[in-house]
Write a structure and sequence with these properties.
Blueprint lengths: L4 E10 L5 E11 L2 E9 L5 E11 L1 H5 L14 E11 L5 E11 L4 E14 L2 E10 L6 E6 L2 H7 L6 E12 L5 E12 L3 H10 L13 E13 L2 E10 L3 E10 L4 E10 L1 H8 L4 H5 L9 E8 L4 E5 L40 H4 L1
Parallel strand pairs: 4-5
Antiparallel strand pairs: 1-2, 2-3, 3-4, 5-6, 6-7, 7-8, 8-9, 9-10, 10-11, 11-12, 12-13, 13-14, 14-15, 15-16, 16-17
Length: 357
Amino acid sequence: MLGEIINVRATSKMNPDSSLQSLECDRFRIHETDISVQGQRASSGVFHLKLKGPQFDLEPFLTHNSSSKKDESFSLPIQVTIDFDRVRFDEQRMMTNVSGLLKNNKTEWKEFNIRGLLPGQTNGKNNFLQMIRQPTETKDKLRIQSNNAGSVLHLLNISDSTRQGQLQVLGEKYPDDSWQGTIQIDQFHLADAPVMTKLLSLASPFGVFDALSGQSVVFEQFQSKFVWHKGKILLENGRASGTSLGFTVNGRINRNKRTLKLQGAVLPYNAVNIFLLKIPIVGQLLGGEQGGIWGISYTLEGSTESPEVTVNPFSALTPGFLRFIFEASIEDTPEEDSFPKNQVTAPVRSPHRKQIG
């Protein structure tokens, strides 16, 4: 999997019981990785590793099928300090100045704090990505933050259509190994988005989306609850707000199979929708928090690269609190590899709803 070994120069020291006491490798080159390795076993039994060099290559690990990968284990706990000029994801995707600390308790990477730079700048500051996992007495906590959400989504090969945006992901790990939490992106826009273009094109007979077709759409904020479990993501109560357009989203994304099934409503003239919803009593009667006073229900289903897009013309004439009648039910067609028992299986009614809110 890792390719041809080009150059390795290393020395090691063993304990009387044949366990590794120290390791020194001033040149470790394998595939596109070029680093040095220093290791020393502490009196506590923890093996401390220092990895440093011009480049660490992640691509072989990313292309390996994670869904079939068995749990990795070590014979002793490990603490790793990293300092890389570059971390390579593939030929087009890299991070620079990557540093951090990772701790493994012999079965999993229980704690880490990693920070690196992304290409370009935002408001005169270097784009960055920071990922923190911190164990607590109850649940492990996860925080992911960046000043450029578009660069992060590109780096992770999720989307090339998001531009800018302040990203924050907060999550907690549950006993079934799922992560539950919230994702928020502030001040971003979508451009060169084929799915959005197709959706607006299908809705254009109603006239309300004509002015937006082919343009970059600016959003003030996107928020959603999520559940992540072994490469499968469930989005719940997702909503984006902008002056000219808003949308809601619920459903599933399977990263292993690269498929999705999402539903929601696209809301034209979102500022008008928001203004009317804030009128006492009137707003509650017409729309409440069910997706605006008017909008068009949509469904995305199929491959993540090119899903089938459908819209319901009747929903455009329906107040938000009645539009759910025209929306397909995600839970009517569960996936074969559905989420574990006691896990979220429907986008609205969640047994963990209070826990992930």
